[in-house]
Amino acid sequence: MHHALTLPDTFGASLRFLRKRAQLTQDELGRAVGYSREQIARLENGSRLPDLAVVAALFVPALLPDRDRALTEQFLALAGRTRREVQLTVTRTRETQIELVQTTVVAPKPRFAPPAPLLPLIGRQADVAELIARLRTARLITLIGAPGIGKTRLALAVGHAAQAAFADGAALVSLAEAQTAADIPYAVLQALALTPAAGQSPADGLRDALRPRQLLLILDNCEHLLDGATLFADWLAHAPDLRLLCTSRVPLDLYGEHEWPLAPLAVPDLAEPPDLARWGQLPALQLLAARASAADPAFALTDDNLLPLASLCVAPVSYTHLTLPTSDLV
After folding, report:
1. Which residues contact 5 (CB under 8 A, 6 or more apart)?
2. Which of 171, 247, 252, 320 lies at a CB distance of 3.0 to 4.6 Å from 229, suitable for a disulfide?
């Protein structure tokens, strides 16, 4: 007589059971689903919560290639229950015990903040003030400019300055690694540490998560995902208190978009006699001097190096290479 297989009563134990049943090591399962061995171990010992979308899309095919419906339903149900009801007690010392208990589906909304820039903003203070003022009425602003011109760095400065005006703060989402429009919801969910409900698609889960929030969402590197920009319009339609600040090399071509072309920093006029006091106050030369000082603490702007460095700032090709080639954080 055939008896239906029943999984252990916790997600971690069930994951371990199914992994061993599939004759996979933690390393092998990790490679199959894009996790490290340590992440698999933490899922199995209960110190990491499962991501329902990832469990359904990657873990189930790897652990249940036969697509056993009963086991699949049990496994996903355990993952959902684990996200709803988790109790973890950590004893750090004999005197201190920390107990974290999550017993309901509804959790307090976190307040978001963009990462703190490592370098000061140079020459864009007026842009920051004007963009903050524009965000009071504009719900979608796109910073447009060439690579390396400072779009990301300006967007971070605006996010930091404006986050107090939003109940849920401001968050940065890099879309540089997204390959297609379908990757956008995953990138945003990961950046906001959100997980869709059981049976909910990432796109629907993200829309529901954004709906009640008063949030400034900074979407960086949008130029290669223009076909996915319709998602932005969908979020704005469903979330009345959401604001989007995007960076792109080209406009997103969305209804209601406010374009903000970003010009290069002010440079010296080489037709004028070199003037250390005056040229040294120009943003482009200040930026170059700041980067040089970071590489060589002994560096100083002098009458001797003033003209060669000013020429670097003015040269159109050279200017774009004064910043880090893999980053827009200038």
Report:
1. 68, 70, 71
2. 252
Of the candidates 158, 165, 123, the residue with the CA atom closest to the CA atom of residue 143: 158
Alpha-carbon torsion (21, 25, 28, 34), positive or negative? positive
Q: Which two tokens stand for residue 247?
A: 């960076």
| Cβ atoms of residues 205 and 57 within 8 Å | no
- Residue 97's CB: how many other CB atoms inside 10 A? 10
DSSP state of 169: B
CA distance linking residue 303 with residue 298, whole number of Å? 16
**Mean pLDDT for the stretch of residues 239-249:** 96
Place of tokens 């903003």: 121
d(CA 147, CA 223): 11
Instruction: Mention every residue, 6+ apart, whose C-beta is less than 8 A from residue 175.
Output: 183, 184, 187, 219, 220, 221, 222, 225
- Rounded distance, CA 198 to CA 196, Å? 7
pTM for the full model?
A: 0.59
Does residue 49 contact residue 113 with C-beta atoms inside 8 Å?
no
Cβ atoms 322, 312 nearer than 8 A: yes
Distance between CA atoms of 111 and 132, rounded to whole angstroms?
19
Ramachandran region of residue 256, left (φ > 0), alpha (ψ -120 to 50) or beta? left
Encode pLDDT of 266-283 as tens digits: 888 888 888 888 888 888
CA distance 195 to 198: 9
**143 near 245, Cβ under 8 Å?**
yes
> What is the percent of the chain with per-residue pLDDT over 90, rounded to a whole number?
44
DSSP state of 96: -
Work out the average pLDDT over 167-180: 93
CA 176-178-184 angle, 5° bins = 115
CA–CA distance, 281 with 286 (Å, rounded to integer):
7
User: 267: closest CA among 289, 285, 280?
Assistant: 285
